[in-house]
Amino acid sequence: MRKNLLLSSIVALFFSVPSIAETVNFPEEIVPLQVGDKKIEHSFFNRVDEVELTPGVYQFKLKYTDLYEQGYDEHQVIDSEPFWVTMTIAANTDYDVVFNRADNAVAAKVFAEAPQVSLQVKGESLGIPLAIIPEPNLSSGAVSPVATAAPAASTTAIASATTAQAPVSGPAPNAAAMLDFWWQQASVQEQQAFIDKVTKSK
């Protein structure tokens, strides 16, 4: 009886370990590309907008990409170069990456030249600005280990993530513009897969 009870306790402890991971949520305009030496894979159908990490210090590679309407059925995509920041993740705390969205494409281009993002504890109103750091030398072993980092890819979480982030100035892009935006980001194979999916659903 004691042996069974002990075995049950060990099994319960083993399966409870992932629950200590904390979640970092990203708005759709800030794309997580890499955590330490672990690359995050995105696809046309499945964008990663949250990453689960155990408490610690992590180096994130991010990219800013945004869409601005220029007129009827016209829009402009604004991208930044990938940049690195350091995030400190505390135990029992979930976070949102937030930023102040520009009012127009001109201001967005200025932002893209020097992106500024903050790490905000979920539920709080103030975030901690994250300084951009030089690209870390991942082969040196100086970067905090991220073997426990587990990207949580979810297409259903994209919409909810955008409503919980920093205030968005101006009207949000409509569904048609966003579809066109993501279409341009997709590879030829992903575009064909999307066409096949839409055709089959009719």
Q: Could you walk me through the main structural features you see in this protein, from its secondary elements to its overall organization?
A:
The chain has 202 residues and is α+β, with helices and mostly antiparallel strands. The protein has one domain. It is built from 5 helices and 12 strands. The chain has helices at residues 2-16, 105-113, 157-163, 175-185, 188-201; strands at 22-25, 30-35, 38-39, 48-53, 56-71, 74-79, 83-89, 95-98, 117-121, 127-130, 132-133, 150-153. The strands form 2 sheets. It has a 6-stranded mixed β-sheet with strand order 10-9-8-1-4-12. A hairpin with a 5-residue loop joins strand 9 and strand 10. The longest helix is centred in the first third of the chain and has 15 residues, at 2-16. The model is unreliable at 1-19 and 140-173 (pLDDT under 50).
Q: Number of domains in the coordinates?
A: 1
Q: Please mark out the parts with pLDDT under 50 across 5 or more consecutive residues, or reply none.
A: 1-19, 140-173
The average pLDDT value, as a whole number, equals: 74
Strand content: 25-35%
Overall strand count: 12
C-alpha-based Rg, rounded: 20 Å
Share in helix: 25-40%
> What structural class results from the helix and strand content?
alpha+beta
Trace the largest sheet across and list its strands: 10-9-8-1-4-12
Please state the overall shape, judged from the principal axes of the Cα atoms.
Answer: globular
Pfam families: DUF2057
Protein name: DUF2057 domain-containing protein
Family: Belongs to the UPF0319 family.
Keywords: Signal
